[in-house]
Every structure is written in C-alpha cells, then in structure tokens.
Amino acid sequence: MFADVRDIKRINRERRNLHNKRNCQKEGDQILANIGPIRNENKPVVVTTINPWSEEGSGDLLGEALFPAITPKNEVHLTGESQKETGKAVAVSNNINGNEANEKILNLSKQMHMVQKQTHLIQERCIELINNVTDDVKSYTALLDNLQDDLSSLWKRVVKVDFNAAQSQAALDVLERDWIEDRKSINNLQNGSNAILVELNEHSKRLLALEMQTTNLTLQRCQNDGETYKSHLQIQNMDLRLTQIDHRIDESLKLYENHRKSNENIFRSYRDALANIARKTHNMSGEILSLTNTETNMRLDIDKFVKQLPKDCAKEKTNGIILIEVPSLGPLEVFCDTTSDGGPWITVQRRFNGSESFFRDWAEYRNGFGDLKGEFWLGNKALHLLTRKRRMKLHIDMWDIQDRSFYAEYETFRIRSELDQYAIEISNHSGNASDALTSHVGMGFSTFDKDNDASSANCAVHHTGGWWYQHCHRADLNGRYSLGMTWYDEYSQEWLQLVRVEMKIAPNEF
Predict the structure, then answer these.
(1) Which residues on adjacent β-strands are paired with residue 450?
(2) Beta strands 369-370 and 494-507, pairing class
C-alpha cells in the first residue's frame, strides 16, 4: 500500500518536471520571437556563446541568430567583425539621422541585455531540471529496489501461508481419520452389544422354560413315586450300610498292617537320610561361608567400579557410548557428543530418519527406548535423576527441510519427579532459533495413555508423540517424523519444519 502511494507521488513529480520543461521551451521561443524584429531591422550580430547543454564549445542555436554567451563575469563580448559592423551601422545612421541611430543603438543594447538575462535564467532552469531528472532516476532506482524487497517479503509470506495451510490440513486429516475410526468402532460396539442383548434375552427365555419344565416333571415324579419307593429305599439303604461297614472294617485292618510296615521302612529311611543330611550340612557350611565371602567381595568390587564411573561426558575426547553413574539408578549407557560447542554433551534425544517410532506409552518414555547409535529417547527417569541435584544446561540442534541449521540453548534445565509428571523447568535462552520452549515451562509430560496437557483434547494423540504439551505446543521435537517435528521461530514468524534434531545436556557449574 505504501509502495503504491510512493509511485503516485513519483508520477506526479515527473508530470510537474515535464510541465516545467515545456514552459522553459515556450520561454525560449518567446525570446527568439523578441529577437526576430531586431534581426529584420539590423544586420546580424555574431557573438561567441557557451551552449548551456554542453560543457564545451559554442555555436549557433538558430541559424544566423545566436544567443549571447554568459561569461564567468556575466559580460557580453563582441568579436572584431561585430564591432566593425556596428561602427558602420552607426556611421550610416549618422549620415541619415544621428538622433534616430543613437536611439536604435540604445534600444538594441537594452534588448541584448534583456536577452542575456533571460538566457541566463533559462540556463539555470534547465540545469535545475536536469538535476531534478537525475534525482528522479535515483528515486526510481530506489523504488525498484524497494519493490524487489516487497516482492521477496510477499513471497516469504506466501510460502509461510502455504506451509501453515499444509500443516493445518494434515492435522485436520489426522483428526478426521481418527474421528471416522472412532465412529466405526462405536457403531461396531453398539451393533455387537445389541446382538448380544438379543441372544441373552433368547437364552434367558429358553432357560426359564427348561427350568419350569424340569421343576414340573420333578414334582410329578416325586408325588407319584415318593410313597412307593420310600419303604423299599429304607431297607436297601440299611443293607447297603451293613455291607459297607464290613468292607470298611476289612480295609481298615489291611491298611493298618500296611501302614505299620510302611512306617517301619520310612523310619529307617528317615534315619539314614538324617545321617546323610548331617554329613552334607557339615560339608556345605564351609562352601556357604566361602560363597558368602565371595559375594561380599564382588559387591565391594562392583560398588568401587560404579563409584569410579564418570558422572557425565566432561572428560571424553571423542564421540561414542560410555557408562556413567546416575545416582539412585546405577550404571547407565549414554552417547557423548564432544564436537558441538559448549560440550562435551550427554545426548538425550536424536532423530534424523524416522526409523524409530516416538508414539510410545508412559512407561516407555519413562524408561527410554531406541538405539544410542541411531534414534532414541534416553528416558524421563534418567533425565530427572541427572538434573535433580546438579545444575545442568540444555542444547538443541535443529535442521529444517531447506537444510538450514538452528540451535537453542538454555542455561538451566531440570526435570521433576514422576509424582510431578516429569514437568520441565528451563531458563535463560540463547541461540539463532527463537525461544519456543519457554511457553512449555511447568507442564507435565504427556503420552497417549497419560494426558497431562492443558488442552481439552489429548495433544499426544493428535500429534502422535510424547512431549511437554500445553495448548498444544510451540515446539514439538517428538511428534510425527518430518510433518510433526516443528519449532515456531518468532524471528521470521514461521514454523520450522524439521528433519533432524538432537537434544543434549551438560553440567553448568560455575
């Protein structure tokens, strides 16, 4: 809009300059018209002049009639021939009429002086117009540069709008697919529930009918046969009981004899076993004592080894995997980065090719996952224990789809305990990437099975990752690879679409 206003002002200025040029030309024609009668009455006067549109030389401007030149001292110099002809004209005039000739000469001198002044004014105005035209050319050049900058800025805005639109469309597509799948699952569950209810009702009816039939039959049989078999059953039961008692007495006698013999054998075996156990116990006492001493020595050696482990990568000279001691956790394998500025660093997260899924549950993010030589997450529990009692700093390296590199660093970095949902604490930002992570300070870590964000929706589900989401994020380094790995750059006011990222920590003890 401001560029259009400047263009209108430039065009109006150019029109005024053209109008001034035309006025200058008209004034020159008027001067020539005033000189015309003088030429008709007298002989031409030849004088040397300087072309106002040239740095050197002199010459005619209009055939025989010449403009009187303006010398450095603004004087008019006539040539010898002009002076002679003027003398002749005076002599002739004296012969005819002395007074009349003198009057014409005086008028001629006045007219020449007037022409000289007008020519000088025309020269100054023409020079002024030339300067104005030069200024206009410079202004137009600056205007073209401004227009080029405006076009570049407009193109960046168009690219930003396209990227934001693509990201929004992708998020909408994910939400739409999730909604369709959820709707299908709900419909299937409703249909299945209805079918099950129908089957249960039918089975209930059948069971009730069968129970009624069975009850009726049982009652009828009991009524018909109860009296008939009552006495017969009592007699049979008495005979059966007597027979069973006889068998039980015989079996009891046999069992008693067998138990007696068996007890004697068991007693002898038990006595021999006790003797063997006594001998083995005596022998094993020495072995147990030796094993106990060995175990104690091994525990001491392990404790010494663990205490000798480094607590970070500060003494490492090359990149690689080492064992460090983490308080309350024990030995832990970490990847040391010794090449990045401000290190050496403990790498806690790395993504570069999408080979590892970061759509994990709470337990996996707590314990860590992935390959230290590839893509991985060190684990929220380890991050908490590493930053609990030591002052640590955080460094983030990022590369976007245009292969531009960015970094952000925070002087303090701390992860709270699991009781506090592994909430993040950071401060004192620096780097060529703007501060997009401070807006997440105090937020608990969220996964698809444990929603701790401030949004009414589950940000971890929508962005398929685990992060310290809020509403939902201004930075998300664990989202879906390429599409969901983003960082909002306030300097350029655009979202950075990342293809590679590394998060690292190191002691920041003064």
Answers:
(1) 447
(2) unpaired
Residue 274: its H or E element: helix 80-308
Cβ proximity of 397 and 510 under 8 Å: no
Average pLDDT score over residue span 97-108: 80
**CA distance linking residue 462 with residue 176, whole number of Å:** 11
Give Dmax over CA atoms of the chain in angstroms: 197
Residue 488 belongs to what domain range? 320-507
pLDDT of res. 117: 87
Please give the tally of structural domains in the chain: 1
Residue 360 lies in a domain: yes
pLDDT of 400 strictly over 80: yes
Is 223 part of any domain? no
pLDDT band at 239 (very low <50, low <70, confident <90, very high): confident
318 vs 90, more confident: 318
- Reading the block at residue 454, the tokens are 């401030």
Indicate the pTM of the whole model: 0.46
pLDDT above 50: residue 78: no
Compute, in degrees rounded to 10, the torsion defined by CA atoms 270, 276, 280, 281.
40
Nearest-angstrom CA–CA distance, 7 and 11: 6
Query: Which DSSP state fits 465?
Result: S
For residues 115 and 37, what is the distance between their CA atoms, to the nearest angstrom? 13
Q: What is the dihedral of CA 26, 31, 34, 38, to 10 degrees?
A: -150
pLDDT at 72: 43
pLDDT, tens only, 120-177: 898 888 888 888 888 878 888 888 888 888 888 888 888 888 788 788 787 778 878 8
Is 261 part of any domain? no
The enclosing domain of 393 has a CATH number of 3.90.215.10
Q: What is the structure's pLDDT at 255?
A: 81
Collapsing DSSP states into helix, strand and coil, what is residue 429?
strand
492: CB partners within 8 A, 6+ apart? 156, 160
Query: Of residues 440 and 59, which shows the higher confidence score?
Result: 440
Q: How big is the CA angle at 487 (ends 486 and 490), to the nearest 5 degrees?
A: 145
**In whole angstroms, what is the distance from residue 277 CA to residue 292 CA?**
21
CA distance 323 to 308: 10
Residue 199 lies in a domain: no
The per-residue DSSP string of 343-412 comes to --EEEEEEESSS-S-----HHHHHH-EE-TTSSEE--HHHHHHHHSSS-EEEEEEEEETT--EEEEEEEE
Dist CA 138 CA 151 (whole Å)? 20
- How many CB atoms are closer than 10 A to CB 476? 24
Q: Give 292-358 as a 3 state SS string.
A: HHHHHHHHHHHHHHHHHCCCCCCCCCCCEEEEEEECCCEEEEEEEECCCCCCCEEEEEEECCCCCCC
Average pLDDT over residues 341-356: 94
